[in-house]
């Protein structure tokens, strides 16, 4: 069976995978989730960390053949890791994630979409070196953009653990080479996503082999809304490389 390394997106941490890890282990895989610098239990100054440091942190955990799963902003982080240390990456999986395009930072990638549901939620810090998401307004506000179909206890857990995000990491474009671009890769579209428009996800996934594009009828947070179904899909993806 496979080993999977799960990478969170903006403002999240390893904590968001709490229900997916045991589900993967039940299916016979080994899996771990880590905090990127400045997230979760990591105490680095979020206003000083970089996208390269995100990739380096991931690379440090690539000690055996690994399926690398990146959620949302984590698509940039796993691609950066692949540029640093591709040898032990058996596949990149982009879970409703931004996939880097040449010369475009994540912030610029976001603006390629026809709709911008996240832009009104972004609140810059006084230094402008970090930002948070405004989740006021309950399900009809920012919470609904990320978690509209998630259990209430999971939403409460997320609200208690969300953190600021690095502006510099979002404003950094990647120098894409064959180190990352030649690796096997899959995309999982979340059809009910209110953070990254599903149509834009399908545009990004159009650059993938059609056999490697999958879908879940989930919000932006399938690790909360349907962890067992997400694990089952990751199991299917893993088995194609077995």
From TrEMBL:
Which InterPro entries does the record match to this protein? Answer: AB_hydrolase_1, AB_hydrolase_fold, MES/HNL
Give residue ranges for domain AB hydrolase-1. Answer: 4-232
Which residue windows are transmembrane per the record? none
List, in alphabetical order, the Gene Ontology terms for molecular function in this entry.
Answer: methyl indole-3-acetate esterase activity; methyl jasmonate esterase activity
Q: Keywords, A to Z?
A: Hydrolase
**Protein's recorded name:** Alpha/beta fold hydrolase
Q: Which organism is it from?
A: Sagittula salina
